[in-house]
């Protein structure tokens, strides 16, 4: 049992998320539990994450690294090189939580209506901040606007998924398999 106010290591983070999200019934309960748990992760002094930080130094690219997967969640870290940008994409049906651990990212959210794509929001994510999304909320894109600095995030998806929906600017959706640069610390 964790003491109130104590911080989570990486294995504690995935164990807590996995059990708690499985147990929570409503989307609201899951959302709150995920936000609270992610906010307790000790990203400033965590050393266990180092083995999962694998990437190549190429501008415009981002690198997914799988940390943990079970029946309830997928936990991954993404390393965002300078000017890396995702396409507009969807998420797990019950929730996706993203904690920014380094740098800055811009998140844009979108909806599709009558075959057209509309941007609904734009926010800057800073270290320690968490965003939440799922398929009923809409699609989003993320980008590292910096020309010099890398950014890093930790993502929890519930339930786990292997195929993502990517939407082009005309609102056409394609289903693409998710791939990882590194899996459980191995490239
Ligand atoms: Fe996303």
Considering the chains and any ligands shown, give keywords for the structure.
binds fe (ii) ion; thioether bond; EC 1.13.11.20; six-stranded mixed sheet; 12 strands; Jelly Rolls; mainly beta; iron; Cysteine dioxygenase
Shape: globular
In CATH, what is the class? Mainly Beta
Q: Percent of residues in helical segments?
A: 10-25%
Q: What's the number of structural domains?
A: 1
Count of DSSP H/I helices: 2
Task: Please give the CATH architecture.
Answer: Sandwich
What integer value in Å does the Rg equal?
Answer: 16 Å
- The fraction of residues assigned to DSSP E strands is 35-45%
- Integer average pLDDT: 92
Main sheet?
A: 6 strands, mixed
Cross-link (3'-(S-cysteinyl)-tyrosine (Cys-Tyr)): 96-157
InterPro entries: CDO_1, RmlC-like_jellyroll, RmlC_Cupin_sf
Binding site for Fe cation: 89, 91, 140
Protein name: Cysteine dioxygenase
Q: How does this model look, in words?
A:
Belongs to the cysteine dioxygenase family. The protein has 187 residues and is mainly β. The chain has a single domain (50-183), classed as Jelly Rolls (Sandwich), CATH 2.60.120.10. Helices cover 14% and strands 39% of the residues. The chain is built from two helices and twelve strands; from the N terminus they run ααββββββββββββ. The chain has helices spanning 10-23, 27-39, and strands at residues 62-69, 74-80, 88-89, 95-102, 105-113, 116-125, 130-133, 139-143, 151-158, 163-167, 173-177, 182-183. The chain has a six-stranded mixed sheet, covered by helices on one side. It has a three-stranded antiparallel sheet with strand order 3-10-11, with no helix packed on it. A three-stranded antiparallel sheet has the order 6-5-8, with no helix packed on it. A hairpin with a 2-residue loop joins strand 5 and strand 6 (116-125). Helix 1 packs antiparallel against helix 2 (27-39). The protein starts with 9 loop residues before the first helix and ends with a strand. The model has no long low-confidence stretch (mean pLDDT 92). The structure holds fe (ii) ion. Fe (ii) ion (FE2) binds next to loops.
């Amino acid at each position: 049992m964790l003491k109130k106010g104590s911080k989570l290591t990486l294995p504690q983070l995935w164990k807590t998320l996995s059990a708690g999200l499985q147990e929570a019934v409503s989307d609201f309960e899951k959302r709150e539990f995920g936000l609270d748990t992610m906010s307790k992760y000790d990203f400033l002094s965590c050393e266990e994450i180092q083995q999962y930080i694998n990437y190549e130094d190429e501008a415009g690219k981002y690198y997914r690294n799988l940390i943990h997967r079970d029946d309830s969640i997928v936990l991954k870290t993404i390393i965002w090189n300078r000017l890396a940008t995702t396409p507009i994409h969807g998420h797990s049906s019950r929730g996706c939580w993203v904690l920014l651990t380094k740098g800055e990212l811009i998140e844009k959210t979108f909806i599709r209506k009558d075959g057209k794509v509309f941007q609904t929001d734009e926010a800057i994510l800073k270290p320690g901040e968490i965003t939440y999304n799922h398929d009923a909320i809409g699609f989003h894109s993320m980008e590292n606007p910096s020309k010099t600095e890398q950014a890093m995030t930790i993502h929890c998806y519930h339930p786990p998924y292997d195929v993502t929906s990517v939407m082009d600017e005309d609102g056409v959706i394609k289903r693409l398999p998710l791939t990882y640069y590194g899996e459980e610390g191995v490239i």
